[in-house]
Amino acid sequence: MSVLVYTEFDNGKFKKNALEAASYACKLAEQLNTSVSAITINASNPEEIGNYGVSKILKVTQDKLSVFNAKAYATAIAQAAEKEGTDIIVVSSSTDSKYMAAILAGILKAGYCTNVVALPTSTNPLVVKRTAFSNKGFAHTQYKTKINIIGVSSNAYGVFENKVSPEVENFEPKLNESDFSVHSVNIDKVTGKATIADADIVVSGGRGLKGPENWGMIEELAEVLGAATACSKPVSDMGWRPHSEHVGQTGKPVASNLYVAIGISGAIQHLAGINASKVKVVINTDPEAPFFKAADYGIVGDAFEVVPKLIEKLKEFKAQNA
Amino acid sequence: MKILVCISNVPDTTSKINFTEGDTKFDTNGVQFVINPNDEFGLTRAMWFKEKQGATIHVATVGGPAVEPTMRKALAIGADEAVRVNAEPTDALFVAQQLAEVVKNGSYDLIIAGRESIDYNGGMVPGMMSALLNFNFVNTCIGLEIEGNTATAFREIDGGKEKISTTLPLIIGGQKGLVEESDLRIPNMRGIMMARQKKLNVLEPIEANHGLEDIKYEKPAPKGAVKLVDADNISQLIDLLHNEAKVI
């Protein structure tokens, strides 16, 4: 038995979901009485992942891999798994990891379970709990294969520090031209802002905000909370906000610790996409809005009055608790 | 260009989710099934290639006879032929192997699948197929143009989008953005009549191994009622989020 975790590195640091995947992998390895290896690709400070219990690091450094390439990354990780004699591979639920790991599963003919929300309920046979039916149910899923891939749902397990001094080994995957036949031409990405996938808190605005000119207070609230901004489907359909902010069934899935819905009624398709969030707050003028049935906390009130007051009070709170 | 659109037959979004047979099966009683929304965006994009570039569209699914109304709907929207692999779609690895076999025998240039199905939300089938077939693959695809053998695609990434250049044969995991929701087509009477005459081939599954097996389902614990905070007492909300929910 051995566990391999793929730890994503971006913009000079490990992504938060990489730390979560590493924390999960370490606890799992403890249950299995084995150790964890991590594979890092072009990470400038790979030993940092040792702070989360990883005892061995396979360090890959190749110029060709400087931009994420799903097929090439999957091929490299498959080779690392083979070299280490890995039975279980742990990956996060980021967009890139989900893209890469489906290819990896095809290469290794591995069982791959996504949206896993907890440590395995059984290790022999391996059984995990995952969300299904757009968070309206859970499945207990048993692996049937020799090599198994676990995709850990964002914010489901948490990040736990556990300092060890890892052994760092250079690893050179053998990659062919054909592994790079999907080329990245350019990347258009907001930098320096929390993304919906990685954020602990997401602040989301709906049609109740009346127009794109009113998004200033949403962005300010997000800034105070260190949150990512999101929006409902009608808002992105009307072009008030970019598509990449649309959350819901056909948009981006959200699994944050806190989701704040402002001026969003809570259509079933919207709730399907955000229900994995742990705590939900709704601010809406209509007390009959369906979101009040899905939320943990609610304020019946006009967003244009409530949100500025909330920003002010949060600033005071942050100042006191800084 | 020959396109295969992979369709998943899923419960309508508004369906009540219940389980039966000792919580080991999804209860289909009273549930209406539809084309998986992510696949429908892909099918609509395929129609664009058919109308503008003369492509041929086949649709494929893995499932029992009960999925045929959904396949007929795809034919009514405008697909030319349908293929049903006669097996229960138990898990992604099994389904990917079945669909890869359909692709091998049909010499398709472009395979359009959805990012994920809205029932089991796995999101694995197109990626697995790409590895099994050694085809190029773009996931979370929100835009696709084909010119000869070259494809330009846009992929949604965390915090933005990526422009991608690649070649056929290609598999995509599509989603909204490939076309807009307002572009989706409702089958008209003529389409529905024509769909009855179109070929719906039934194939027996190949030998394939399973990756996963769902052994039990459960519903989330019932949620407590919302705690309402007065709009004039915002500090109470902050207090609750800090001390009770512990999320700020």
Short description:
By secondary structure, chain A is α/β, with parallel strands linked by helices. Chain A has eight helices and 18 strands.
Under the CATH scheme, the architecture of the largest domain in chain A is 3-Layer(aba) Sandwich
Please give the share of residues in helix of chain A.
Answer: 25-40%
Q: What fold name stands as the CATH topology of the largest domain in chain A?
A: Rossmann fold
CATH architecture level-2 label of chain B: 3-Layer(aba) Sandwich
Percent of residues in helices of chain B comes to 25-40%
Q: List low-pLDDT spans of chain A.
A: none
Largest sheet strand order of chain B: 11-10-9-12-8-1-6-7-13
Counting DSSP E segments of at least 2 residues, the number of strands of chain A comes to 18
User: What is the strand content of chain B?
Assistant: 25-35%
Count of folded domains of chain A: 2
CATH superfamily of the largest domain in chain A: HUPs
Biggest pleated-sheet summary of chain A:
7 strands, parallel
CATH class of the largest domain in chain A equals: Alpha Beta
Structural overview:
The complex is a heterodimer of chains A (322) and B (248). Chain A is α/β, with parallel strands linked by helices and 322 residues long. Chain A is 28% helix and 26% strand. Chain A folds into two domains: 3-180, 3-Layer(aba) Sandwich (Rossmann fold), CATH 3.40.50.620; 201-321, TPP-binding domain (Rossmann fold, 3-Layer(aba) Sandwich). In chain A, strands 7-11-6-1-4-5-12 form a seven-stranded parallel sheet, sandwiched between helices. A five-stranded parallel sheet of chain A has the order 15-14-16-17-18. In chain A, strands 8-9-10 form a three-stranded antiparallel sheet, with no helix packed on it. Chain B is α/β, with parallel strands linked by helices and 248 residues long. Chain B has one domain (2-221): 3-Layer(aba) Sandwich (Rossmann fold). In chain B, 29% of the residues lie in helices and 32% in strands. Chain B is built from six helices and 15 strands. Chain B has helices at residues 37-53, 68-77, 92-106, 125-133, 189-197, 234-244, and strands spanning 2-6, 9-11, 19-20, 25-26, 33-35, 56-62, 81-85, 110-114, 136-147, 150-157, 160-167, 170-174, 199-203, 212-218, 227-228. In chain B, the strands form three sheets. Chain B has a nine-stranded mixed sheet, with helices on both faces. A two-stranded antiparallel ribbon of chain B has the order 2-5. In chain B, a hairpin with a 2-residue loop joins β10 (150-157) and β11. Chain B is globular.
